[in-house]
Amino acid sequence: MLSMCNKGHSPQERFISVVAWCISTTRPATFGVAPFNPILGETHHVSKGNLNVLLEQVSHHPPVTALHATDEKENIEMIWSQQPVPKFNGLGGNHKVIKGKIFDSSSLKVLYEVDGHWDSIVKLKDTNNATMKVIYDAKEVISGLKAPIVKDAESVWPTESAYVWGETSQEIMNKNWEKAREAKQVVEEEQRELLRERESKGESWNPKHFTISYSKEEGWDCSPIHKWVLDAPIIAQ
Question: Which residues lie in coiled coils (predicted)?
């Protein structure tokens, strides 16, 4: 879906593709949620076709994840960062609902209305002629997803998520809860020891793949150090 973001014939078409792709990044609960927080410097480096993606945990308190994705063939680059923002909006309303508007930035005229559910169908309504079209079908997008494969195990970084939490995840899958807890504690204690070492030496930690800055006005800025993301040893199918 990301490759479609650069194929539209007009800015509107390309923006609609970006909206559809953003919706696709929300996954239903069937994919599960890892019961642990990323460690500082944890990475995930994966490729699919010509698209190469690199994520790095650039802050632990607060938790911030930076992402850099490039596709040289399609001339696509994405730089993005994420951090949870706690909010309390009350108990009313429907869950899994997507609603929004696409408007012209100069005239503020609403061009399209977006409506649907991120776990099923999301439609786009053209306000000029009231025509509707589906821009996202969760079943169609998710049904073909498969677990990634490791193409080159020796090239997997020790900071790779699957490597860091491999033993913990395996014990969880085996329902060996006590062993999973112990494996998780080993990872966490290693991080505490590294923190103590840095503090004793008066050193600060810096990300390996991004430069970061923060301001109250702009929030977090995570800029990739390298222009292109290299091919990854892990392949998404």
Answer: none
The strands making up 121-126's β-sheet, listed across from edge to edge, are 97-103, 110-117, 121-126, 132-137
Question: How many structural domains are present in the chain?
Answer: 1
CA dihedral 18, 22, 24, 26 (to 10 degrees): 180
Pairing of strands 234-235, 43-48: parallel
Nearest to 31 by CA among 174, 152, 141, 157: 141
pLDDT band for 90, please (50, 70, 90 cuts): low
Query: How far apart, in whole angstroms, are the C-alpha atoms of residue 200 and residue 20?
Result: 48
Expressed as residue numbers, the domain containing 21 is 2-235
Tokens matching residue 133: 């079209």
What are phi and psi for residue 187, nearest 5 degrees? -60, -45
Pair of tokens at residue 186: 């080993």
The rounded percent of the chain whose pLDDT value lies above 90 is 68
Return phi, psi of residue 32, to 5°: 80, 165
Residue 120, classed as helix, strand or coil, is coil
Task: Quote the pTM value.
Answer: 0.83
CB of 31 closer than 8 Å to CB of 43: no
User: What ranges in the chain are assigned the alpha helix state H?
Assistant: 11-24, 138-142, 161-164, 166-173, 177-201
In tens, the pLDDT along 188-219 reads 999 999 999 999 999 999 999 999 999 988 88
